[in-house]
Design goal:
By secondary structure, this protein is an alpha+beta fold. Helix content is about 20%, strand content about 35%. A hairpin with an 8-residue loop joins strand 2 and strand 3. About 5% of the residues have low confidence.
Length: about 170
C-alpha cells in the first residue's frame, strides 16, 4: 500500500519571484512526477498546514518565506501507475516576492525555476491554484480542459479570509 492510496493531506506555497515570475519545481516523485509544480508536499503528523507549506518551500527551493496567506483548499483525485490517489491540498501564497538563492539544490526536486507563467509548461492543477492566488487569470474552460486531459478531478474550497483561534 502506498501513501497515496488514502486521502493524503498536503500543502503548497505559491511564491512570486522578481519581474512577474513564479517559483516552480520539477517534481521527481508522486502522481505528478515529471511536471513543473508549485513547491509543496505532505503534511507531517502534528504539523500545521501553513508550517508544512513553509517547510516544503524551504526544502525544495531554499527560499525561507517569512509570511503567507491561505488562498484555498483543493481536493484532487485521479489515477497513476500505482493506482488511485486523493490529495487534500492546502494552498498558500507568499505575502511578497522572493528570489531564488544562488546555487541551491532542491530536496527531492529535479530543478528549480522562477518563470513567467506563459514561459513554463506547468501542471494543469496549477492553472486553478495560481488563478485563485491572484498570480494568473485562467478562465474556467481552460482549467477544465487541462484537468480533463490529465484525468484529474479538482474541487476548490476558496478562502475569503483566515482567522486564527488560539487556545486559552
Amino acid at each position: 500500500m502506498n501513501r497515496f492510496s488514502r486521502a493524503l493531506p498536503a500543502a503548497l506555497l505559491a511564491i512570486p519571484g522578481p519581474g512577474g515570475t513564479v517559483t516552480f519545481v520539477h517534481q521527481l516523485k508522486g502522481p505528478y512526477a515529471g511536471s513543473w509544480l508549485l513547491p509543496g508536499g505532505g503534511i507531517e503528523p502534528g504539523e500545521a498546514a501553513e508550517a508544512a507549506a513553509l517547510r516544503e518551500a524551504r526544502e525544495e527551493t531554499g527560499i525561507a518565506v517569512e509570511s503567507c496567506s491561505l488562498s484555498a483548499v483543493y481536493e484532487f483525485t485521479g489515477k497513476w501507475e500505482q493506482g488511485h490517489y486523493h490529495l487534500l491540498m492546502f494552498a498558500f501564497r507568499a505575502d511578497r516576492a522572493y528570489e531564488l538563492p544562488v546555487g541551491y539544490d532542491g530536496h527531492n526536486v529535479g530543478e528549480i525555476r522562477q518563470a513567467r507563467i506563459d514561459d513554463i509548461a506547468m501542471h494543469s492543477t496549477d492553472l486553478q491554484i495560481l488563478t485563485d492566488a491572484g498570480l494568473a487569470s485562467y478562465d474556467d474552460e481552460t482549467i477544465a480542459r487541462g484537468l480533463a486531459e490529465d484525468g484529474i478531478t479538482m474541487h476548490a474550497h476558496r478562502v475569503g479570509s483566515t482567522t486564527r483561534f488560539l487556545a486559552p
